[in-house]
From TrEMBL:
GO CC terms in record: endoplasmic reticulum membrane; Golgi membrane
Family: Belongs to the BET1 family.
Official protein name in the record: t-SNARE coiled-coil homology domain-containing protein
Residue ranges of the TM segments: 103-121
InterPro entries: BET1_SNARE (IPR039899), T_SNARE_dom (IPR000727)
Keyword DNA-binding: no
Length: 122
């Protein structure tokens, strides 16, 4: 007898939402509403994920571009360092001998004198 009651209650639960002439609002339709809300939320999350994916792609391209620019800048700095090193070696050679040192002092004096005269005449 207990089995019949369980069977009847299961059957009643199964046909609970059906009335004459239509289906009344039941827990099943609220379940559909929640499912629809979940679908909308999932679509919103997918849109956000797509936006983040594009954003990270743009960031990656920007980082690669800056990395290439820094590499070129580093190479330019290395070549500049080589040029300055050669110039410093030449200056050292000029100032190593006394006659060259005197010549450099004489040239520097003429340049200073020229600048002084130019300043006074202006």
């Amino acid at each position: 007898m207990n089995s019949r009651r369980d069977h009847r209650s299961n059957r009643a639960a199964l046909f609970d939402g059906i009335e004459e002439g239509g289906i009344r609002a039941s827990a099943y339709s609220s379940h559909e509403i929640h499912e629809h809300d979940n679908d909308l939320a999932i679509e919103g999350l997918q849109d956000r994920v797509n936006i983040l994916k594009r954003l990270t792609g743009d960031i990656h391209e920007e980082v690669e571009s800056h990395s290439r620019m820094l590499d070129r800048m580093g190479n330019d700095m290395d070549s500049s360092r080589g040029i300055l090193s050669g110039t410093m070696d030449r200056f050292k050679m000029v100032f190593e001998t006394k006659s060259n040192r005197r010549m450099a002092t004489l040239v520097a004096s003429f340049v200073a004198l020229f600048l002084l005269i130019y300043y006074l005449t202006k």
